[in-house]
């Protein structure tokens, strides 16, 4: 059972938002960063938000290496830092569930666009760099703005979860469904992660055009 979650890149908006939501539900979270002092400041801010909420888990700040010792680890770094962050943590992350939510995107005057990854996706790159870790892709399309606002009690979105091992996928689905208004669905193996990661470019374009925080919903008879 997952009781602690380490967040590599925990000072960024996506990592902080997911950390906050999990801590509200009673999980202990370690925010990791290349700069442990920055992580400690971010953890103190989240702890202040959680103050007075009964049952909330503890939030602490540490180095990425220390955060990698948690029961499960979320990778929430910018794509530009993805490979260099993970390549030094292969030993520390061996045997652990590693949840990769990184979206390989670029931005120019025309807006967001997907970036090609040699391995096929960020999740597949993580698997190549961490051969002994249990990689699961998830949380690519969840708005960091909505995650950060605890006044929002229904995120109204589905989370697509991708992985090779059904038990690991089930663990991540359970973590996803701790978030209010989230349904999580097993959407295939890691080889299918690329299009899920790249879909975020479309969501960002929608957000900019319509001034919203778009998510996704999957429809169809027989879905849970």
UniProtKB/TrEMBL annotation:
Transmembrane region(s): none
GO BP terms in the entry: copper ion import; NADPH regeneration
CC annotations in GO: plasma membrane
The keyword Oxidoreductase is annotated on this UniProt entry: yes
InterPro entries registered for this protein in UniProt: NAD(P)-bd_dom_sf, NpdG, P5C_Rdtase_cat_N, STEAP_metalloreductase
Taxonomic superkingdom: Bacteria
Statement: the UniProt record of this protein carries the keyword Oxidoreductase: yes
GO molecular function annotations of the record: coenzyme F420 binding; cupric reductase (NADH) activity; ferric-chelate reductase (NADPH) activity; NADP binding; oxidoreductase activity, acting on NAD(P)H
Keywords attached to this entry: Oxidoreductase
SUPFAM superfamilies linked to this entry: NAD(P)-binding Rossmann-fold domains
Domain Pyrroline-5-carboxylate reductase catalytic N-terminal span(s) in chain numbering: 4-104
Pfam families (UniProt xref): F420_oxidored (PF03807)
PANTHER family: DUDULIN-RELATED, F420-DEPENDENT NADP REDUCTASE
Name of the protein in question: Oxidoreductase
Species: Janibacter indicus
């Amino acid at each position: 059972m997952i009781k602690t979650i380490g967040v590599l890149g925990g000072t960024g908006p996506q990592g902080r938002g997911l950390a906050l939501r999990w801590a509200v539900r009673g999980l202990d979270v370690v925010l990791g960063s290349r700069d442990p002092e920055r992580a400690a400041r971010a953890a103190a801010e989240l702890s202040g938000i959680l103050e007075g909420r009964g049952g909330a888990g503890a939030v602490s700040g540490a180095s990425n290496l220390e955060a990698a010792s948690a029961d499960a680890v979320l990778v929430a770094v910018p794509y530009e830092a993805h490979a260099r962050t993970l390549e030094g943590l292969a030993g520390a992350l061996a045997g652990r569930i590693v949840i990769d939510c990184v979206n390989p995107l670029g931005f120019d005057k025309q807006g967001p666009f997907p970036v090609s990854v040699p391995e096929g996706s960020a999740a597949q790159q993580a698997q190549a760099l961490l051969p002994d870790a249990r990689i699961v892709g998830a949380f690519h399309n969840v708005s960091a703005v909505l995650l950060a606002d605890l006044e929002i009690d229904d995120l109204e979105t589905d989370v697509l979860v991708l992985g090779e091992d059904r038990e690991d996928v089930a663990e991540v689905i359970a973590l996803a469904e701790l978030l209010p208004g989230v349904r999580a669905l097993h959407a295939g193996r890691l080889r299918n992660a690329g299009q899920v990661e790249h879909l975020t470019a479309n969501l960002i374009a929608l957000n900019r055009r319509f001034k919203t925080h778009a998510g996704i919903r999957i429809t169809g008879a027989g879905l849970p």
